[in-house]
Amino acid sequence: MSVRFDLRLPVIVAALLVVGLMTVSTAALAPRVSPGIFQKQLLGLGLSVLPIALLWWAGRDRIYRTAPILYGLALLLQASTFVIGKDVNGQQNWLVLGPVQFQPLELLKLALILMLPLVMREGYKGLRSYAAPLAVFLPAFGLVVVQDFGGAMVLGVMFLAILLVFRMPLLHVLGLLLVVGVAYPTVIFPHLKPYQQDRLTIFIDPYKDARGQGYQVIQSTIAIGSGGMMGKGYKKGTQSHNGFVPEAHTDFAFATWAEEQGLVGGVAVLLLYAGLIWGLAGMASGSPRLQDQLLFAGVLGQIGFQAIENIGAALSMLPLTGITLPLISYGLSSLVMTLTTLGLAYVVYRDRFDKMI
């Protein structure tokens, strides 16, 4: 197996992890936040070594062969949340295994990123080409959308990104966008719970409910604005430390970071994500097989959308969906699976010229 090292991706990921550790450590000073989250985040980094090492050893072909097993396991775990799931922030989509809380959605994202390219590797060859990917995607989407609309949005964007690389006709792309554009306001939105509807629309004018649904977004923008150009300094944020910024370690991690590091630090994070997305896109274009390109599209759809949505929500430019900021927000299952997904992309790129066995 030939090895082709490209250090750009690991360097960018390492920089984002440093930002994440700094953000989590300062968010731990806020009231109602467990002071042990920094140690748990470090534990997540340590746990990530095992799946990445396993992927590195297995190589691309062995990994693809495990996709059906991983997909079946992920579906089973996601379905089990309806029976034995733990309720966190109003969503019963967590599993508790001893001292560990795990969100099966994170594993399901990885499983889809592997499984969809496997059944779509021949490319678009007519309407029948949609049968297999829809058979894979719809069960996963159906299990998630019932409990976690934000998570379902991530899966939807991932699937759309993969379909675009699948070389589906432009007319079909326009038709799909039209269906979504019509279905969202007429079918999907009316059936959401009232608090979900409020969270998806409050960003337009958060001050119309400043002490209710708009409170989180208002406090986030105040914290970001108070950071000024250079920020208040590491562990000197007043808005986050005094409890004004809710979920300062997860949903609003960017606000916590920007308050202390200012506009310069905020732009630096944006540039790091832009570099990560650009690097992944370059890996996709440098991979000769459609199957690998589809995998990179899924990774790009997941990480790119989560970063844009989380930061946009913190700035009151996009709806608040509870989507975490990849590699920065606190969360063991999110951190471990995001690093595993990036490790998968790195291994696939490493083996891109190897013969399929």
From TrEMBL:
Superkingdom assignment: Bacteria
Gene Ontology CC, one term: cell division site
Subcellular location: Membrane
Listed transmembrane segments: 37-57, 69-88, 100-120, 127-143, 149-166, 173-192, 262-282, 294-315, 327-349
Catalytic reactions of this protein: [GlcNAc-(1->4)-Mur2Ac(oyl-L-Ala-gamma-D-Glu-L-Lys-D-Ala-D-Ala)](n)-di-trans,octa-cis-undecaprenyl diphosphate + beta-D-GlcNAc-(1->4)-Mur2Ac(oyl-L-Ala-gamma-D-Glu-L-Lys-D-Ala-D-Ala)-di-trans,octa-cis-undecaprenyl diphosphate = [GlcNAc-(1->4)-Mur2Ac(oyl-L-Ala-gamma-D-Glu-L-Lys-D-Ala-D-Ala)](n+1)-di-trans,octa-cis-undecaprenyl diphosphate + di-trans,octa-cis-undecaprenyl diphosphate + H(+)
Membrane topology: Multi-pass membrane protein
EC number: 2.4.99.28
Residues making up the signal peptide according to the UniProt record: none
Entries under InterPro entries matching the protein: FtsW/RodA
Pfam families: FTSW_RODA_SPOVE (PF01098)
Protein family per UniProt: Belongs to the SEDS family. FtsW subfamily.
Name used for this protein in its record: Probable peptidoglycan glycosyltransferase FtsW
